[in-house]
Each structure stands twice: as structure tokens, then as C-alpha cells.
């Protein structure tokens, strides 16, 4: 007998829309993020799409939503979507510093993990673990 209903971890997605990306390709990328999140046991409530001309407007909005809703996971297509935002800090580093959330890379995990990591999570905490109370 089960102990109760399974908990679904909330998540949001983030991706950059590159100039050569068509609207169909953008829609497909969003769908791929949603499918990946579902397979990881996550509920992807929304996807923030960054327009390069206004970068980091969508990322700033994402950080605020993650803080306000205490969302532990942000799903991204590849680590390139979390590259530097200035002053040498990457978006992934800023995300973890400001929110404690974990960036989960949806890229093909059959390849070598980014930075030699053995899990797809870019932050120091294990995937999906919420921050400890102070």
C-alpha cells in the first residue's frame, strides 16, 4: 500500500530564442522541455523565453518567480542557455546564488556530463532538493 500521493516537484523552464530560430522550432523546444521535465517527475508550470536583444529580461523575471514560488528546479535545454551574464558570473551561478534553485540540463545525458558531473544538475545540491531552512 502506498504511503500517500506522490509529490510532484514544481519547475520552470528557461531558454534563449536565437535569431535563426523559427517560431515552430521555439514551440518544439518548449515541448521537449516539458516532456523531459515530466519524465523527471517535475511539473513544468511555465517556460521563460529570452530574446537576445533584451537579455536578461526573461531571466530576471524567472529569478523573481523562482524566489516567490520557492521553485527548486529550472529546466534548460543545454548549459549554453545559462552562460555568462556579465561580471564573469553565469546565469546558472546567479540562479543558485539568488534562489538556491538547481538548473537541470535537458540535453542528451548519454554524452559526457558538463564539467565532469555525474548528474544533470548544475548546482552543488542534489537535484530537486529544496534549500535547508536557516
Could you give a quick summary of the protein structure above?
With 134 residues, this protein is α/β, with parallel strands linked by helices. It has helices at residues 23-39, 57-69, 91-99, and strands at residues 9-17, 42-51, 73-76, 102-105. Helices cover 29% and strands 20% of the residues.
Q: How would you characterize the overall build of this protein?
A:
With 134 residues, the chain is α/β, with parallel strands linked by helices. The protein has a single domain, classed as Rossmann fold (3-Layer(aba) Sandwich), CATH 3.40.50.1390. Helices cover 29% and strands 20% of the residues. The chain is built from three helices and four strands, in the order βαβαβαβ. The protein has helices at residues 23-39, 57-69, 91-99; strands spanning 9-17, 42-51, 73-76, 102-105. Strands 2-1-3-4 form a four-stranded parallel β-sheet, with helices on both faces. β3, α3 (91-99) and β4 (102-105) form a beta-alpha-beta unit. α2 (57-69) packs parallel to α3 (91-99). The longest helix is centred in the first third of the chain and has 17 residues, at 23-39. The radius of gyration is 15 Å and the shape is globular. Mean pLDDT is 79; it is low at 108-120 and 122-134.
Amino acid at each position: 500500500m502506498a504511503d500517500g500521493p506522490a509529490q510532484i516537484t514544481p519547475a520552470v523552464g528557461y531558454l534563449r530564442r536565437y535569431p535563426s530560430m523559427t517560431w515552430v522550432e521555439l514551440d518544439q523546444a518548449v515541448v521537449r522541455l516539458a516532456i523531459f521535465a515530466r519524465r523527471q517527475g517535475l511539473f513544468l508550470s511555465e517556460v521563460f523565453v529570452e530574446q537576445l536583444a533584451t537579455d536578461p529580461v526573461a531571466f530576471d523575471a524567472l529569478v523573481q518567480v523562482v524566489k516567490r514560488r520557492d521553485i527548486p528546479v529550472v529546466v534548460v535545454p543545454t548549459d549554453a542557455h545559462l552562460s555568462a551574464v556579465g561580471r564573469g558570473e553565469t546565469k546558472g551561478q546567479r540562479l543558485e546564488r539568488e534562489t538556491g534553485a538547481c538548473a537541470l540540463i535537458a540535453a542528451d545525458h548519454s554524452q559526457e556530463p558538463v564539467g565532469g558531473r555525474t548528474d544533470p544538475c548544475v548546482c552543488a545540491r542534489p537535484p530537486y532538493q529544496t534549500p535547508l531552512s536557516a
